[in-house]
Amino acid sequence: MTSKLDNNILFYGNGSSGNHGCEAIVRGTIILLKNEPFSFLLQSNDISEDSRYGLDLLLSIKPAKSKIPHDLKFLKAYLKMKLIHSYVEMDGLYYLPGIRDVSDKTTIALSIGGDNYCYNGTEIYPWLNREYHRHGIKTILWGCSVEPSLISSATYNKDFALYDAIVARETITYNALRQVNDRTVLAPDPAFFMSPVACPLDSRFSAGNIIGINATPTIISNEKTTGIAYENYKQLISYILNETDLSIALIPHVVWKHVSDLSVHENLYRDFDCSDRIIMVDDHTAPELKYIISQCRFFIGARTHATIAAYSTGVPTLVLGYSVKAKGIARDLFDDETGYVLPVQDLQTPTDLTNAFLALYEKSDQLRTHLSSRLPDYLKNGENAIAVLKEVAASK
Known about the structure:
The protein is α/β, with parallel strands linked by helices. It contains 17 helices and 15 strands. It has helices at 20-32, 47-52, 72-84, 88-93, 96-102, 124-134, 154-162, 171-177, 217-221, 228-243, 261-271, 286-294, 304-312, 324-334, 352-361, 364-380, 382-394; strands at residues 8-12, 39-44, 60-63, 108-111, 138-144, 165-168, 184-186, 210-213, 247-250, 255-256, 259-260, 278-280, 298-301, 317-321, 341-343. Helix 13 links the parallel strand 13 (298-301) and strand 14. Helix 6 runs parallel beside helix 7 (154-162) and helix 10 packs across helix 15. The two termini are 12 Å apart.
C-alpha cells in the first residue's frame, strides 16, 4: 500500500518559466503522468515567475533556495571557496533548507533541467543528487541530454550511476548513459506531451503563409566566427522577403532579462525597417507559444523547446543547433540529423542557413507526412518514462 508521501513527486533543477522550455517540461510531465496516482511539488528559483505563467494552478511550488546561517558548514564552505576556489559547497548550502523541507513530503525527486549537464556550472548537480539521497529521497534524471564525453569524468560517472533511474530524451544520450547506469531508458522530452492552447493570432496568420523563426543569444554565443549567426538570420529574412510571398513570425521562447530571444528579434525587426511582413510575436505561456508555432507553414528554430513545439504539432522544422540535444532528437525523428540540424559551429558563410532552409523547405509536404506517421510510435516511448518512475516509486 502506498502512502500520500510515496505519491508526491518533487521536481528540481529546473529554470523558471521565463524560459518556456522549463515551463513546458513541467507541464508535459504532469500530462504524461495524468493517469498515475501522483501529486507534484516544484522547487522553484523564482516562484513569482512560475506563478505568472500559471504553474501554481498545477502543483505546489516551494523555493529552491533559502538564506543560510553563518555556522560551521558555512565556514567550511567559505574556506574551500577562498583557498581552493571550489564554489560547489557554498552554492549548495542555499539549497539545503529546501531539501530538508521536502524530506518529509516526498520520496522521489526528478531532476528536470533537461540539458543541465550540457553547460558550464554542472558541478552543483552531483552535489544535489548526493544531498537528496542523503535525506532519504530517490532521484531520477528526467528527460535529459548529456554530452557523451562527460561520462569519461570519474565525478560524473559516479554521479550518473547514483541516480535511481535515468530517462534520456534522445538516443545519443541514452547510448552514453547506459554504459554507466543500466536503469537508463529512452523517452521523448516531456514537452512533446504538452498540449497547445489557442490564443488570439495576428491577422496575418490567417493566410497560412507564415515562416516561424526563433533566434537566440545562446546561438550567437556558440558561433565560431563572430557575427556569422546573426548575419545568417539577416540573409535568410532578406531572401524570404525579396524572393517569396511568405511572411515571417519572430517567435520568442526564452524571455529572461539576461538572455532574451526578444532582444535578437527586436534587432532583426529594426534591421528590416519594421517590415509589415514581419510579425513580432510577444511573450506568451508555453502552451500558447506551441499553438502559435503550430500555425506556421515552416519553422526555423534555435531553442530546443521551440523546435519541439513545431515537431510535435507536425510543422516541418529546421534546427539551428549547438549541442547534442538538437542532433539526438532529430536523429530519432528522421533517422539522420543531416539536413534537419545545422550546427551553429558549422556556419562558414552568410548564406548557410538560407541554403539549408531552401533544401528542406522543398520537402515540406514530405516532412509533414513523415511527422504525422512517425509521431504516434515515437510518443509511445513515453511509457518507458512512466514505467521506470513507477518502478522507482515501488522500490524500497
